[in-house]
Amino acid sequence: MTKSIELRDLAIGYKNRQPVKVVAQHIDASIFSSELTCLLGANGIGKSTLLRTLSAFQPKLSGDVFIHGQEIGAYSEKALARLISVVLTERLDIKNMSVHELVALGRSPYTGFWGKLTPEDHKEIDKAISLVKITHLTHRMVHTLSDGERQKAMIAKALAQNTPVIFLDEPTAFLDFPSKVEMMQLLHRLSRETQKTIFLSTHDLELALQIADKIWLMDDRARIHVGTPEDLSLNGDLSNFFARKGILFDKDTGLFRVENDFDRQIRLVGHGQRYSMIRKALLRNRILAERNAPSYDTIEIVENRILLSIENQPQIWVDTIEELLEKMKNYY
Ligand SMILES: Nc1ncnc2c1ncn2[C@@H]1O[C@H](COP(=O)(O)OP(=O)(O)OP(=O)(O)O)[C@@H](O)[C@H]1O
């Protein structure tokens, strides 16, 4: 694991406006190879601006960006294309191009003016396609692919570019949940297997906190907090960040929880998964169910059944949480 990108007192933003718009400043941080680093932050906070600045698509306001020890501005465009590949998420309107042809575009920094592919280029293209596990799609037309498949093809193109650094802007957007997980795991595996530096922006907090090696958290005071998900959790950065009404960051699990308010309480007797699920379902209905609740009413888990005892009412047996909620409606 070596430092491949170093930012020193970097300020990013837009000079073309008066006054100059500073999106983030005083950024001192490094990105390492063989690691997956995820950039998190609210909408409009500046994630794309940072990615664009690090990709040299837009000028920085001040400070330095060192990539492999050299300031980004000192690289020629051609040298940068062999150093950094960028995967954007826009749904590109690619017609009449096969997956193989798309991935082959990744070789353009190496091919001559006519884009003629050498055996070496073909080897890299096949390798890239196989790394993201879409060999069976090689000859499909890109516009016939699903969002997830197209996303993988775009990543294969970046891999074929064979750069030590890959930036991705929201690679998990548009994907269903299992595909998001698969995509993050794929990128994490690639960072390990290919020793690449992989830096991506995402809104998938839970996933990033579980899979990323490092997190960059952009806050609304134009600062960036950097660390392992666990350190950011322990030092309170994550809780502060998400301390909005209704969202709790649970330091014990390192995950988020939606905090439901309650206005009634009921005693819940039992344990295990059924206990947690009843508690969860009732909380969603503004009822707090727990062992020591100050209530004469009780829900008891008896083997696979649930016994509801409301004060001065006949006891009721139910089998599912849906039934329980239905019965409780009469009293709560
Ligand atoms: N070309 C531009 N000129 C001036 N301001 C811009 C320009 N592009 C973006 N901004 C502003 O810079 C800020 C950061 O935008 P950016 O797109 O980087 O946010 P983001 O974190 O990527 O947001 P999202 O999660 O919604 O994609 C926003 O306030 C945005 O309005």
CATH T-level fold name of the largest domain:
Rossmann fold
Strand content: 25-35%
Q: How does the helix and strand content classify structurally?
A: alpha/beta
Unreliable segments of 5+ consecutive residues? none
The percentage helix is 25-40%
Supply Rg.
26 Å
The ordered H/E elements are: EEEHEEHEHHHEHEHEEHHEEEHEEEEH
Give the termini separation: 57 Å
User: Can you tell me the number of structural domains?
Assistant: 3
Q: What's the CATH C level of the largest domain?
A: Alpha Beta
Number of strands: 17
Number of helices: 11
Mean pLDDT: 90
Enumerate the strands of the largest sheet in spatial order, edge to edge or round the barrel.
6-7-8-3-9-10
Bound molecules: adenosine-5'-triphosphate
Tell me the major beta sheet: 6 strands, mixed
- Name of the CATH homologous superfamily of the largest domain: P-loop containing nucleotide triphosphate hydrolases
Shape: elongated
Name the CATH architecture of the largest domain: 3-Layer(aba) Sandwich
In short:
By secondary structure, the chain is of the alpha/beta class. It has helices at residues 47-54, 77-81, 99-105, 119-131, 147-160, 177-194, 205-211, 229-234, 237-241, 272-284, 321-328; strands at residues 3-14, 21-32, 35-40, 62-67, 70-71, 84-87, 165-169, 197-201, 214-218, 224-227, 247-250, 255-258, 264-269, 287-290, 298-302, 305-309, 316-318.
